[in-house]
Amino acid sequence: MVESEEIRIGVYVCHCGLNIASVVDINKVIEEVSKVPNVVVAKEYQFMCSQPGQNMIIEDIKQRHLNRVVVAACSPRMHEPTFQKAVEEGGLNPYLFEMANIREHCSWVHEKEKDAATDKAIKLVNAAIAKARLLKPLNVEKVKVIPKALVIGGGIAGIRASLDIANAGFQVHLVETRPSIGGNMARLDKTFPTLDCSQCILTPLMVEVSRHPNIILRTYTDVVDISGSVGNFKVKLLKKPRYVDATKCTGCGVCVTKCPWTAPSEFELGLGKRKAIYFEFPQAVPLIPVIDPEHCMYFQKGTCRACERFCPTKAIDFNQKPEEVELEVGVIILATGYSLYDVAKTMPEYGYRKYKDVITGLELERLVSASGPTKGHIVRPSDGKEPKKVAIILCVGSRDEKHLRYCCRFGCVAGIKHAYYIVSYIPDAEVYICYRDIRTFGKGYEEFYERIRNYENVKFIRGSPMEILQDADGSLYFDVFDANTNRVVTLRPDLVVLETGVVPHTTFKELAKLLKCSIGPDGFALELHPKLRPTETSVDGVFLAGAVQGPKDIPDTVAQAGAAASSAIALMSKGYVETVPYVASINEDLCSGCGICQPLCAFDAISLVKKEDGKQVASVDISKCKGCGVCAAACPSGAAQQLGFSDDQILAMVRALTR
Amino acid sequence: MFILSRRLILTFKFSLEDTVKELRPQLCYQCMKCSSGCTAAKVVDKYRPHEIVALVKAGYSDELINSDVIWACSACLKCAEYCPQRLSPFEVVMALRNEAIVRGRAPPKSFVEMAKSILELGHIQKPMYIMSKDFEEVSRTELGLPEMPKPKDIEKFKQHVLLVGFEKLKGIV
């Protein structure tokens, strides 16, 4: 296009059904904008985003020789790409298009002031026209995508996503901070609503991961740094020392048997003990033990070395050091999962950790598990006796303005499942489930609820207790108002199970900071669109799987992991990504090399370079630039400009708005 | 206690309507925590904070204002402390009580007695009597309790107490 070419603008005003048209006088907008210089065509249509609407634009570009297009409709977040494609199909550079948002910014917020809304719509369209006159064609570049994926988190979400990607033929690095993959699901005894054994459906997948030729399993490893962008992420990992040579270890477990030192087991949530050299759990993958230096006598006092003495393959290596690993990957899947809400600290009224017989639902899972600390016998932690009366309290910390505002999405059905555990293992026990609402929304969940309601010794109390108290003899009791019977019930349970709320995993916050991906008000990763783009993040090439995005049960987690994997596969099999051209650009003639912009850039995209003539100027690495515009705003000389949002374009809009 | 102070002032100063707007009982989803732990509910069967909140929410404030039930709260503030929706059944009850007084409704006899007692003696009840859960007076001597000491400058105290509008309480002056 030549600079002197006559500007011919087509303006299209969308009714959006009645979303816009019921408030804004569309005909008046058309009438007003028709008078604006350079506007060749001004048309209205019910749904501009539909095919007839788009065709209108394409035809007009061809027949009326338009070289700029303005659409007044919804938010550009919604349909800018739609119209850009239409403009391109008409034969123009897609960035010679400007959108005026007269729905979210006008009709939706000014429902009751129709005249003023029409005036505002006219101004918004005029501003878009003013900018359109100054638009320049922008170029999209193609960046190669490295066909390798990094999956962070080895729970069921990470396992499923890794397998899906690996099965599609791409290499996957699966990173897990604990010594074994498996995550929280490995702790469960049974899974609702079908009650199939959690280990039986999980461990085969874990083994598949360890044997898959396309999966590189990196357990006991932390992610310490991530840079780069979609297609080309550079990742720094820190492999923590196991003090066991993985190439020599056969997983025979003699070292564990011989080790005389113990510590509370992380996997058993403190309910059981493990040795100073230990397997995360008996079915751990990889089946390689870890030495915990904090409890190992050799590391503490320099003596013992029992494991080393008895190891038949000489695999113990006390001199192992943390090892840095650098990777280059094209896509990243976050699957860091959840942690339980710390109710010991935040809700002392329920006495968790203060009273031994108040436990969490996850701890009950360990008590029920055949491989757990009690070999599957449900006993009270205080005296090892079988509880005959058990209270299960739902919504502990969840749906609470002072704690977690959101629903944990599995507490209800987990609580019902826990009642099932009790009555099926201890048939003469009584179970009381204290609930606010029972939310059994998933497939088969209501039927499961019905099944448990049939048990005579499972009683549902519609009410939450305020506090759990202890009698002089050490027994627990609490009052709860039951709205179903309209009376206060005093319960004296042998065991109290708290269905606690969930929070993002402790490692997530740091990772989000490294990735610069958005976090929602609840602390979980923020998806790009809650309905239409649930696995994508604000960072291109970073996808979400499972509870990292919000509390989820296993079926939803697996579904999202599959979706995240397919997004990752789509990117890698296409092989390239198109860059967004709204990046910063430096006019080197104007740049004084003052360097103000450089430290302000949150993405490390700006560096100061010396030109051949010795002049220092700022330089933008467009593969890193996210187009935030901070440098352009800070630049004292106007040398830094954001393409597509340059100063002259913005000022022209301001002038049109204030005219 | 914690967040209460600012809103508490509100319940003393403003109308029931304004107070209710501020306290937002519409957020209550009836978890029953308040009624489970309520000190007063343990002795007064009809007193259920969750029910009062629900009635106010549903527009039955008048019914409550004309009922004795709102006078059962013992102001332990547990409901305000533990409510998961940050609303305070206690404050809703206080607003209802204030409205009852504004409308000229006499509180249960025992409350008037208590108010009188405060004005005359500086104590919430006659030093020689204890209030039972049925609002009946039982003599301290009968229960074997010692006599209470009398306050020193009751007139000065009375002046201060009257500043908050104590005299609006029907039957007190």
Average pLDDT level of chain A: 95
User: How would you characterize the largest beta sheet of chain B?
Assistant: 2 strands, antiparallel
Instruction: Name the CATH class of the largest domain in chain A.
Output: Alpha Beta
Number of domains of chain A: 5
Helix tally of chain A equals 19
Strand count of chain A: 34
- Residue share in β-strands of chain A: 15-25%
How would you describe the oligomerization state of the chains in this entry?
A: heterodimer
Sketch the major β-sheet of chain A: 5 strands, parallel
Brief characterization of the structure:
Chain A is an alpha/beta fold.
Strand and helix map with partners:
The complex is a heterodimer of chains A (659) and B (173).
Chain A: E1 9-14, H1 26-34, E2 39-45, H2 51-63, E3 68-73, H3 76-89, E4 97-101, H4 103-107, H5 114-134, E5 142-144, E6 148-152, H6 156-167, E7 171-175, E8 190-191, E9 196-197, H7 198-211, E10 215-218, E11 221-229, E12 232-239, H8 254-258, E13 262-264, E14 273-275, E15 277-278, E16 290-291, H9 297-301, H10 306-310, E17 323-329, E18 331-334, E19 338-340, H11 343-346, E20 358-360, H12 361-368, E21 389-396, H13 411-425, E22 430-435, H14 445-453, E23 458-462, E24 469-470, E25 476-482, E26 487-491, E27 495-500, E28 502-504, H15 508-515, E29 542-544, H16 554-574, E30 576-578, E31 584-586, H17 597-600, E32 606-610, E33 616-620, H18 630-634, E34 640-642, H19 647-658
Parallel strand pairs in A: 1-2, 1-3, 3-4, 6-7, 6-18, 7-10, 18-29, 20-27, 21-22, 21-27, 22-23
Antiparallel strand pairs in A: 5-30, 8-9, 11-12, 12-17, 13-14, 15-16, 19-28, 24-25, 25-26, 31-34, 32-33
Helix pairs in contact in A: 1-5, 2-3, 5-19, 6-7, 6-16, 12-13, 13-14
Chain B: H1 4-13, H2 16-23, H3 33-37, H4 49-57, H5 61-65, H6 78-82, H7 89-102, H8 109-121, E1 129-131, E2 137-139, H9 154-162
Antiparallel strand pairs in B: 1-2
Helix pairs in contact in B: 1-7, 2-7, 4-7, 8-9
